[in-house]
Design brief:
- With 421 residues, the chain is α/β, with parallel strands linked by helices.
- It has two domains: 100 residues, Metallocarboxypeptidase-like (Alpha-Beta Plaits), CATH 3.30.70; 256 residues, Aminopeptidase.
- The chain contains 13 helices and 14 strands.
- Strands 5-6-8-7-11-14-12-13 form an eight-stranded mixed beta sheet, sandwiched between helices.
- Strand 12, helix 10 and strand 13 form a beta-alpha-beta unit.
- Helix 6 crosses helix 13 and helix 10 packs across helix 13.
- It is globular and about 65 Å long.
- It starts with a helix and ends with a helix.
Amino acid sequence: MMIRSGIVFLLCLASVLGKGYENFKIYDVIATNQKQGNVLFELSKQDDYDFFILPRILNQTSRVMVPPQKQREFLRILGKNRMDYNLLNANVGKTIEAEFAANRKPRTWNSRKLGTERYHSHDDINNYLDVLAEEYPSRVFVKKVGKTYENRTMKTITITNGDGKANKKIIFVDGGMHAREWISPAAVVYVIEQLVENYEENKELLADYNWVIMPVVNADGYEYTQQSTSNRFWRKTRTPYKGSLNRNCHGADPNRNFDFHWMEEGASSSPCSETYAGPSGFSEPETRVVRDVLTSIQDRCKFYLTIHSYGQYLLYPWGWSSDLPETWKDLDEVAMAGYNAILKETGTIYTVGSSTNVLYVAAGASDDYAFGVNNIPISITMELPGGGTMGFDPPVSSIDGFVKETWVGIKAMGLKVIEKY
């Protein structure tokens, strides 16, 4: 344990010194039997290995990033267990540098709109919400709902059809729960654009429902990933914590921090872990804000949708147990509406099912909390497709196609919820 902790410390130090992800490699690995699946699962518990995808189902691809000093050991383990693999990226650092360069190109679009030519900052997204509220004062309402640990303003935008009717039912959408998942806020911003600026084409979604949307939950972490190539794969919040050997570690995984089956399987008690659940449920100001918004609308909210990346999954409760909720068929029906719409439109295939049975146990997640505590009847996590040579890096040229495809699925799920409830 002391040796492993020392290695992690050196990794953190390397990042601080600006070396970032130089010579980190990304592998795709397929487990064809349960023994091989167990090997990958045990590796995922080590801080040194960053598993981007780890499906529970056999014969599906797992993707893992491996630091330079772990390459030999990793390949030895794969060879010992006769596991096939593909080297997807031989030098993550160079890929990240290219991604940053592309995202920093001068803007070419109308300044009033954000556009899909780059990944936008949290401030730019917040400013866009305010612009919409000014331009559509009868249909759009922006509210400051809280502050992050680093004092960034968290906002929701409520989108209506302007009829002024009170107590309408609600669909709630959030994005940017995990910092490195840049395509998530991009997709959520596109949803906002469609509901507000393309109202005539989508007005059936707003006839009997209002949409409440929070584009970036983990604003501190999101901004941190955009400050330096050394921070690109940061996942958590930025609250400081003390780790083993009295090391300074930052952040908790917000999607393990919701106080419903908190700190059960799939969550870590180690502050330096990627899946650290925090010292207590709702220790993070960001998750408390989401909790409070959900509580304020729970009597009217019929659909909670949280947008993540990546893997092409439409997941529903439970994430803390392999058991299915009594109403799983309702959840599955809505998820399948999104699946079918995307398949018909673009041919992209999503995997549909409960989180634990499709992927792995992940207790303390927001979708379980919305479903199990707020009693919101439909609660779904949408994991968008991966892009680039890392998965979390769809090139800026792909943003437009990705968000348009995502909207097709979200619209179909929204219409199904409206039909059912």
